[in-house]
Each structure stands twice: as C-alpha cells, then as structure tokens.
Amino acid sequence: MPWRDDPAPYKVVVSEFMLQQTQVNTVIPYFERFIQRFPTLQSLAQARLESVLKLWEGLGYYARARNLHRTAQLIIQNHNGIIPSDPEALRSLPGFGPYTVGAVMAIAFHRPAPAIDGNVLRVVGRLRGQPLPDRSVRTLAGVTAFLEPALASQPPSDFTQALMELGALICIPRQPDCPACPIRKYCAFDTANPPAKPSTPSRTIPHYRIAVGIIWKEGQILIARRKESQMLGGLWEFPGGKREGRESLAQTAIREIHEETGLTVTIDKPYLTLQQAYSHFRITLTAFRCRWIAGRAAPHSSSALRWIKPAELNRYPMPRANRRIATAIQMDPSEYYSPNRSPSLRPRIKRISKDQAP
Which long-range contacts (CB under 8 A, 24 or more apart) does 240-249 make? Predict the structure, then answer.
C-alpha cells in the first residue's frame, strides 16, 4: 500500500477518505494518480472542485471527494495548512467520522486512538464469542474499551493496521483461516458452531426508469452539472430524469429537458439503454438523440448548463452511466455533426457494474 511507504498525515488522510466503503485494490491506482496530481494539501486546496471530481471519476461515493477538497481548504484557512493532530479538531472537518478520526490519529500521529471498521468489529466479536456487533454508539464504546489496553501497550500505528489486516485477510466473514491466525489461542470463535449473525429484514430495492437527451445544436451537445447537494453532486450529465405515471420514455425526456433547461426539443430515436445499480436503488437509463427546436438554455437553481463539442466530453467528470454514453458518442463523432443524421449504431443494452453512490 503506497500510503504505508510514506505515512505522512496528508497521504494518510487521502487514503482513508478513499478507503471509506471501497476496497484497497480498487483504491491504490486512484491514490497514486491523486497524489501525483495533488502532491500537497496546498495543491489540493487550490484546485477547482471539478478537477478533483474528474480525478475521482469511477471511484464512486463522490461526497468523499467534495469533503476532502473542502477539508483541505479549511485546514489552510483555520490550521495554518497543518493537519491537526487533535481528535476534536479533526471531528470538526467534513468527512471525518469516528473511524477516520481514529485511523488518522493512530496511523499518521501514532496516538492510541481506536479505528473501528467492519473488519475490527468482526475480529473483536469473534474474540469475545459474541454475535457480530452492530455499529451503535454502545457497541463502539464497548469495542473501544476492549481495545484500549492493547492500544496503550503497542505502537498504535502498527497495532491498528495489523488489526485491520487480520480482519481483511484471515478473519474474513466466511470461512476464516483460523489455523493461520496469530491470536487464535485467545479467540472464543467456534468454527463448528459460529454465533449467529442477527437477522435483518430483507428490503425491496427500488427500480427507476430514467430518460435523458443527447441534445444537438450546431454540432454541440448540451450537458448539465448536478447541484453539490444532490447525489453525484458536481458531476456533469445529459439532461433528463425519472419517468412519471404512464408517460412514455420519450415523453419523459421531452418534459424533463424542458423543466431542467427551458429548451424545446424533438426526439430523433432511442440511442442507448444502460442498466445501473447504486447502493440503494437501480435504474434503467435510456438516452435519446434529440434536436434543439427552440429556447435558450437557462439552468435552474445552482446547476449549470454548457454546450460543448463531442471531443470535449472527456474534460468533464461524469457518473459512470453518462460516461458510457459519452464514450459511445465519441466512437464516431462524424455521425453527429449533421443535425439531420441519426446515429448508425443500433440502440443497445449494456449492464454496468455497481457504481458506488455517495
């Protein structure tokens, strides 16, 4: 892990923000590109948010990127550009929950602060021979009290990372490698009769039909930036939204485009359909090739609209589904410069792997 080679506070903070709900192997290449582009806290604070989001594109949970960028600016403003080593000061910064505070305190500043993630909860639960604990305040307090004697007697950075890695590599959720465990003799976990995990009621995952428009005008396409307060905030997308009632998807696209942009468009044909899974819902997104008829693009609220050429699509950070549409457009841009021509590519359905939502 590159942040272990040089556990400077800035690199530890960046890595811990990226590791929130994301696996290590996925994070490593993003971390390396991020540090190369923003090698210091100052360079990150001075960057445009759009540049940060573009570098984060594909990693998901984009609120982390916005929080990290804002945290860098606040540290410059309020802490003389030095990441505070006081846990209360860290808690006041965007994106610093109990786990991230503990991880930064232990790994970057070598303070005996517990960093309790899912791996640590599992290890402690098995050591104590109890059902896997939840993440309630009471549970976290009990785990903290359980770990405090070891934290006080061991190097906090080494102990914290070792405990995390024990849960990630050996004490895994299913079929743990108990013979390889270095603390097996202290463990109350019985592989033959494991404690039951508390059952949770199954939930129905909502599914939405989304229609968006690839709106062409004089060789350019219209894109819209999502509000920062929204899911995927700050990213750019093709205008559109959810289907309502019994309207057709084409009607949805025309209505949503007019409500969002003030434009009147006509539908040429469906272009591309994508299926996308997020954390708490799924969507089927259909993109329509549209032509501008009338109106002047007028963004609502704090969002923004921009006419761009197809070759410029790569400059803008986009959610994964919209990026796939942009890539398809760029496959043969000559098809799209004429307002009277329809794309030669047939409408097609692609399944996209789970995109992590903020």
Answer: 240/210, 240/211, 240/212, 240/213, 240/287, 241/210, 241/211, 241/212, 242/208, 242/209, 242/210, 243/208, 243/209, 243/210, 243/211, 249/209, 249/211, 249/286, 249/288
CB 26 within 8 A of CB 289: no
Per residue in 298-318, pLDDT tens?
Answer: 655 445 898 999 989 999 999
pLDDT at res. 135: 76
Q: Is position 32 annotated as part of the catalytic site?
A: no
Distance CA 232, CA 226 (A): 7
β-partners of residue 349 are 273
Residue among 283, 286, 269 at smallest CA distance from 349: 286
Hey, what are 125's tokens? 């639960």
Average pLDDT over residues 70-76: 96
Which one from 16, 237, 256, 260 is the annotated catalytic residue?
A: 16
Condensed to tens digits (0 to 9), the pLDDT of residues 184-235 reads 888 888 766 666 666 667 778 889 899 999 999 888 999 999 887 778 888 9
Placement of tokens 């403003």 in the chain = 77
Rounded CA gap, 35 and 43, in Å?
Answer: 10
